Fold these 2 entries.
Entry 1:
Amino acid sequence: MKVSDYIVNFFIKHEIRDVFGYPGGMVTHLMDSFNKFRTQITAHLNYHEQAASFAACGYAQASLKPGVAFTTSGPGVTNLLTGLCNAYYDSIPALFLTGQVNTYEAKGETLVRQKGFQETDVISIVSSVVKYVAAVTEAEELRYHLEKAYYMASEGRPGPTLLDIPMNVQRADINPGKLIGYSFPASSESISARDACQIIYQALLNARRPLVLVGAGVQNSGTQEYLRAWINSIQIPIVSSMLAVDALPQDNHYYGFIGAYGSRCANFLTAKCDLLITLGTRLDLRQTGVDTEAFAKNAKLLRVEVDENELTNKIKKDEEILFIDLKILMPELVEISKCGLPDFTPWIGVCDEIRTKLPKEENMPNRLIEKLSALLPEDAMITTDVGQNQVWVAQSFVTKGQRILFSGGHGAMGYSLPAAIGAYFGSRKKMLAFTGDGGLQMNMQELQFLARERIPVKIILLNNASLGMIRHFQEMYFDKNYVQTKRTNGYTVPDFVSVAKAYRIPSCRITEPEGLKSALPYIQSAEPALIEIVLPDDTYVFPKLSVGRAIHDQDPLINRSLFDYLTAL
């Protein structure tokens, strides 16, 4: 069997039905093999390798299977890198295949920069942002590397893997029956699920004001239903990271997401709790603030973590870390929750009072997102780009079971559209891709993908004709010297509706919030669409944390008497 045929059949065997990529000289054998088995697997053509890598991320987020993307050597690989980083920092399972020059063309041990055309040292470039990477220079080693890369992508804390395969290896003939496979290691949890549950249960018995902080690890592990059953059973408040705003229904148990742009209420509760249990979140500085000692200052911190490396980043000197996979822990937590726990009603009363008394942000884009969320189908899936649009959606989209997919840690502009394409093929649901004018222009060429495939991806473009986040920074810290962020200072945008029409994509423009209902026919159709919502260029994201302040004391500052009263509760 030809090596490239073996690779394609491996994906088919593992029920991967859609992969993404861009043609190139060093992957022509792989492309030919995908075409050979096109009734069982589809290799989707994107129009930029970065978009292909983002599509693989979206596919994985929606399906919880590894996303797959392929590119040729040289610029194909370097264009892929942004999506690879995105998968690494957001714990997204993905397997990237890169073509490489024939082994007899490679520079080998010589000191020259390059010998073969488009030859690039992929291993050195990507080694710091992958869970596993290998150059497959011998055809007989393919099965081992392929099985290991696929396993590593989903094992433990998910993430990307990459195989760099020379062209002559791709076209080589192998005997599959004689190939040596990868031996899967035993589980490495440091604690049993039963023991971890006992520690959590005992901590809850000793607490008066417990709080659960949920991160994206819950969705990545597919344990949302267990989480919901556990929270409903123990009746304690819950907050989330921004990436996990869709982990729970937005009912009375849920008080919002924490962090610099998070809910005032969620941040206040974090400051006031005496026990903080974190599930599947790494507690980065956007969540804790720069002064980590002030984060959850009065609380015992109990962290559930699957990545040993995160144990080196201590938030509190006396924190307790349970090293265990949520897939193993959460079913057991549901069972043990049937034991009796204290009545936390007084604490819930404090939480509700804080939520009631804190001012609700009345920014026009937030109100618009809330209204729009009521119009969207319950079975849709949402993607966001990076920038103001992302935060507005996280703050104000009222979920009714919809998944919301973000680019979080890497914060890659241009994510929403290609991620929505991948997520569609990972779920076959209607997709709504929220984006800004800056983000859409990063990967606008993927409109041609929509034009070609006619899939129901709806682009919700929040167009303020500015790079709003950076413009706001310039207003705060650079005396309103708006450099390259507004129309008057170097940044411009096209007529997006005309661009969409050039791609044969139905489109409309809304200039007033009252016009949202006019977008319904576009949202409800089975075709792709672009809905542009025109905003003023001086839009803001509030609340927002200023440098040096505690995480629950965000701008615009609330009345000091109210702040002191809530702090004293």
Entry 2:
Amino acid sequence: MKFIFISGGVISGLGKGITTASLAFLLKSRGYKVTPVKVDMYFNVDAGTLRPQEHGEVFVTHDGMECDEDLGHYERFLNQDLNKENYITAGQIYSEVIRKERAFEYGGETVDVIPHVTDEIIRRIKLAGKINKADIVLIEFGGTVGEYKNGIFFEASRILKFKQPKDVLHVHVTYLPFMNHLGELKSKPAQTSVHVLNSLGIQPDILIARSSVDLDKKRLEKLGLYSNIPARQIFSNPDMDTVYKIPLHFHNQNHHLATTCLKILNIPTKKHHHIKKWKDLVNSIECKKKKQVTIGMIGKYFNTGAFKLPDSYVSVIEALKHAAWSSNIELNIKWIDCENFCQKDIRQLDGVLVPQGWGKRGVEGKLEAIKIARSNNIPFLGLCFGMQMATIEFARNVLGLSKANSTEADPDTPHPIVHVMPDQKKYLAQNQYGGTIRLGAWPCKILENSKLFSIYKSNLITNERHRHRYEFNTDYKEKFEKAGLVFSGVSPDGKLMEAIEIPKHKFFIATQFHPEYISRPLSPHPLFVAFIKACTK
């Protein structure tokens, strides 16, 4: 088994995740079994309790791990499912070391950072490779080199390289700012980040130079000289209009990024496969579109200080893009704050999407947006919290239950249309929030002759990923059905309502599950494809 570590320098948010995903794709295209691992340095055990504005979207794997959004990028680029072993946090590492110490598994040794913590990091990295039957494991370190909290992970990579020198390669992603008043890229920050890495006993084998523009020959040679890295092992990674171009950019430089890695690891380079499909994807992104749609994203996790960031909804955004590209449609996404919008904002849209969310903040705005979409025959797609809001809006404005709500937003509502799942009450009573909600892939039985059934191409059972603690209250199911709302997806035992639709509406579908998690650029999710097409009519 071979190991490729990917670290970052100068600033966070450089694109280490996309770099890792791109390299993983290129290595897979050479016929190797690869698996990427994300290492986050915080003491959370998983990402489940983190605020979206704090950390971006929480991605959920098929086996129910709540993790960093980078695992979503990995799955989309590789077109394969990953496992809980593909996500490591400092919280997992230290809690396991302490557990072993309490269980006397160290046999009376003094438990220390080295070797016990580093050994546990290495064990988990190798376990991810074993579980996924990988030839090559790519390990992305979160944060930037030089931060006090991540030094022990770099030390683990140094030890693994020391013990298995022929099996370990280090890729360092660093930043070259373009100074407008000088008119050139500056390499000093990148040089410094390599020197910091050197101080940890690590000499990177490959350098990825992030910048707003391509790296020129002069900067390339200078960076190589001061970083002690041959110019042929430095790759430029400029800003691009879509991340899906990046694998091809790496593939077309120097001696190819994948080829360079394989040569350093002294394993056969093999002929590349699947590159043509990726080129076709990029061509479909760049080609002139026949139609254009504007989708309103009704959310509350955009604002962070003075800035608006889309990271909280990255899987939804990518799923919309995949669907639009596959149908040769130009996609425009309009960010609409559910706490501050006017009706005109909604009425002018081609489609309305209400994504995931938690808590009571912004509930009334989401309900108002759904009401406008339903009343004006505007295509609507609700995801998780979006489905819960759709049922509450229907109860208020169609069934006449004006005080209907979710017990999450109003514990005293006389009409709890959405309530906590029965098995969740014990966890809430004991303040057990982390890792206790309904997570991962669960089967959904689709109602025959429904619109959802036609979208899923007549599949009666589908497996979709979940992340929720509240559900539709089936005490109200009969009233909803009599008023024209159809429960087109249910759990196989019929106890949980998984999807709803209004047959007479142009497109009004909402799901308790998250179809966006399994949408891929080469295989868009059919629900998003159907939604985008409905928005063009």
